[in-house]
Each structure stands twice: as structure tokens, then as C-alpha cells.
Amino acid sequence: MSLIKVENLSVRYGANTVLSHVEMTIEPGEIVTIVGPNGSGKTSLLRAIIGATKPSAGQVALKPGLKIGYVPQKLHIDPTLPISVERFMRLTDRVSRNDCAAALEAAGVPDLLLRQMSQLSGGQFQRVMLARALINQPEVLLLDEATQGLDQPGSAAFYRQIEEVRRETGCAILMISHELHVVMSASDRVICLNGHVCCQGSPAVVASAPEYRALFGTGTGGALALYRHDHDHDHDHHHEAAE
Amino acid sequence: MMLDDFMTRATLAGVGVAFAAAPLGCFVVWRRMAYFGDATAHAAILGVALSLTFQMSIFAGALAVALIMALTVTLLSGRGYAMDTLLGVLAHSALAFGLVAVSFLSGVRIDLMAYLFGDILAVSRSDLVVIWGGAALVMALLAWRWSHLLTATLNEELAYASGFNPKREQLILTLSLAVTVAVAIKVVGVLLIAALLIIPAAAARSLARSPESMALIAAAIGAFSAVAGLRAAYVFDTPAGPSIVCVAAVIFACFSLLGLNLRRGA
To answer: What's the angle, vertex CA A87, arms to CA A82 and CA A92, rounded to 5?
Structure first.
């Protein structure tokens, strides 16, 4: 049975439709990546899955009792809030200090247990968030651009960690990312989103799909897009007309 | 009996309000809702006017209006106006309407100062019951929801992903704030309630290493301010409510300097 089943999902903010008729599923143990330009509804889709955004049509069905681990895009801790890594790890789950330490170890950041969250570097912070999300042995891990603010080697290392997590725990992973070249190679399935699902499938299939090329492959013929990483060019949305 | 002494009653009232206000104040500080506390408190003066008009208990009137105000702000937030603008409009309009409404009350001679700055020395036994009842309610609510409140404060999505609604936690804070404002009117008055919420919490920050310790330290600072402020008011013949806030402010200044030095030394 699917862990997450999104059926005919539409999300509207006022008069603005951000998602229409989205269909997708997450099966146990798979790594699925959502790619799409800014404003394509990636975060809205994730918010709808966790129940933070109400669909205007359609539905999100979670496997009953599904345990979700969530790593938000960025987490701002107000400087007036003192909180240690250990306390942060125990935020929503009752876990022992040993389990906290083990989870940090697994996330590649041992020895941080007693540090204040405010003293962590960007990379350490993301890994602590990953460790917290994993501490309750979730069946699915949701990551919303979890490597934002990390440099290239930092984010590559982070994604290697994610693959490690899947290999060790069998946890399914749904992530949003801008970093096509890293993410695509690590994913079982890619969903290309732009208000609706443009195309989806294995990374190779998506990379050669005309819809994907229209969104990401400007000027490079698509295949090279796997290895490109541009943030500052415009996307021509030809695919709308091409449908 | 002990409670026959007005100073004893005043001290108990001040300590009761401090115990509720300090941990709640931590959330006010963490969530940057300082102005929100102000708005709720200012609205309470309108509640006072209405209570006097309809001859019901001040506590009930203030609680009702503070609650309506807090809910209105929660509903309107994120719909067009920036939060500080919205609160600026609502807080001061509520205060102005309240003051105007009070002026319409003929026949009753009202000491407005008593509600603006509090009249802690006039606390009666039944006031004490209300204050400690309200404070106990707020402390129980905060203790009961603590980890959920903390999660919702850190990140809304984390709350949803853990299976609870952060809006409900926000509502609990809003409710607690209205109760605290209503019970604190007698002690420090509507103009200084926000000070009792924020200053102890801010002072505790430089010493605290965890959210829980910050709440406990803030409660201790608040309670000490109440005791010392009342003592000072008695000795120097100064107004009681403002004296309490002054003590808290001095503690804040000392701890901040201490905190700076500790950080520099580390």
C-alpha cells in the first residue's frame, strides 16, 4: 500500500491557483524528488501532504498511522530562545539521551548533543534537523529544500547521507530540490512540477522528456541539464503551449 | 490572620501574577508578540468601562474584551496589514474607546488611574482568589501544552508534520494572555502589564540555557520584582505597580551586562 497518495489535488490561495490536479504516490522505501521552478507549487504540495494547507479540491491520503519525519526548508530560531541540540531532538518525541546521541551519530554530527542550536554552522544545523526527523523511525522523510544555504560539497554530502539513511532504515524519502544534478542521480523517481505534474518517471526518462527540457534545459538540449546548475536564468514556459 | 495585612495580600497578588506572566512572557518574546500583549492589555480598559456600566465584575469584563481583542488580532493577522500596523491601530483605538466610554459613566466616580496603573494595595481576598485562580489556570495550560507550544513556536510545519495544529497552540497562548491581562489589571494596570510579561523573560534570557530554565528563571525574577517593588513602594512611598516594573527593569539591565561579560569571557 502507498504511504502517501495524492489524488487530483488542487490548492488555491485566494484567486491564485498554485496547484491543479496533481496526482502522485510515494511507495515504501523509494526516493522521490520534486523539481520545478520557483513558484511552481513544490512547497505547497509538501504543505498539503502534512496537512498545513487545505486542498481546494482533491485529497491527500496517508497510510493510517503513518510516521512522518520532516525537515523544513529553513528553521529560524529566535535568538531569545535558548535551546540545546539535545532539547531540540526531544522536541516532539520522548527519547533517551542515548537515542539522541545515536541519531546525531547516524546523521554525521556526533558530539553536538550539549551545544546550543544557535552555535551551529549551517551544515551542522541541517544535519541536526535530519537527525531529529529520523529519531522516531519514520516511514517517510519529507525534505523541503533541505540543503538551502549549504555549499556544493556540503549539499552533496547531505544527499549522500540521505541515501545512507534509506539504505539503513528503508525509509521512503520525498524531497524538493533545486539542485538538479545532485538530486536526479540520487532519486528513484523524479516529479517535474509546474503548477501541475509536467512529467514524472525515472531520472533518465524525465531528463529526456520535452516538458522537462522546456523547463530546465534552455539552450543545452536537455541531456546536459543533468549537469547544469543555474539559478540566474529565465525559464521559458513553452511546455504550456506544447501540451 | 495573615491575609488581613494589605501588604501581605498585595505581595501574594504580585507574586501570583508574576508566576503566570513570566512563562507566558517567554513565548511572547520568542514569538515576537510583545505588541500583541500591549494590544490585549489596552483593550482591557474598554472591558473595565463596560463592566462598570453593566455593573458586572471587572475581571469578567476585562477578560471578555481582552479575549475578543486577542482573537480579532489572530484572525486579522496576515490579511493585508503588517502585524505591527494592525496592532498599533487596534491597541490604541481600543484604549481610546475605553477612555471615552469611561467618561460617559455618570454618577460613578471612577479612579481611572487605578485601572491604568493598578491598585495593588487595594487587593481584597476575593481578588486574590481570582488572581491565583487565573494564574493557576495559565500555568496549568502552559505546562500541559509545553512541548507542543514550543514546537509550534519554532516552526509551523514541524507541528503539522508531528500531527497537531499549531493554530490551536496559538489559540492557547491567546487565551492565556487574555486571562493574564484580566488578572493583572489590579496589580500593575493595563499600561504596565506588557512590562511584566516581557521584562522578566528578557532578563532571564542571558542566564538560561534551555526554554524550561528560561521560564523558571523568568518566574523567579518576576516574583522577586513583585516583592522588592512593593517593599520599595512602601519605603519610598512610590506607586506600587510602576515600582515593581522598575525593579524588573533594573534586574534586566544587570543581567544583560552580566551576560555580555560572560560571553566576552568565554
So the answer is: 120
Neighbours of B77 (CB within 10 A): 15
Determine, yes or no, domain membership for B251. Answer: no
**What are the pLDDT digits (tens) for B209-230?**
999 999 999 999 999 999 999 9
| pLDDT higher than threshold 70 for residue B69 | yes
CATH of the domain at B70: 1.10.3470.10
**Is residue A218's pLDDT more than 60?**
no
Residue A135: count other Cβ atoms within 10 Å of its Cβ: 22
The shortest C-alpha distance from A213 to chain B (Å) reads: 32
Residue B97 placed within a domain: yes
Mutate to test the interface with A, among B27, B79, B162 (most CBs of A within 10 A): B162
| ipTM confidence | 0.82
- The predicted-structure confidence for B143-176, as pLDDT tens digits, reads as follows 999 999 999 999 988 999 888 999 899 889 989 9
| Separation CA A194–CA A217 (nearest Å) | 15
Q: Which tens digit of pLDDT belongs to each residue from A62-85?
A: 999 899 999 988 888 988 999 999
Domain count, chain B: 1
Q: Among B247, B210, B205, B241, which Cα is nearest to B225's? A: B247
> Is A108 domain-assigned?
yes
CA B161 to chain A, closest CA, distance in angstroms equals 5
Report yes or no on B225 lying in a domain.
no
CB of B150 within 8 Å of a chain A CB? The answer is yes
* Cβ neighbours of B201 in A, within 8 Å: 80
Q: Residue B174: which domain range?
A: 2-193
pTM: 0.85
Strand bridging mode A189-193 / A197-201 = antiparallel
Domain housing A119: 75-136
Is residue B36 in a domain?
A: yes
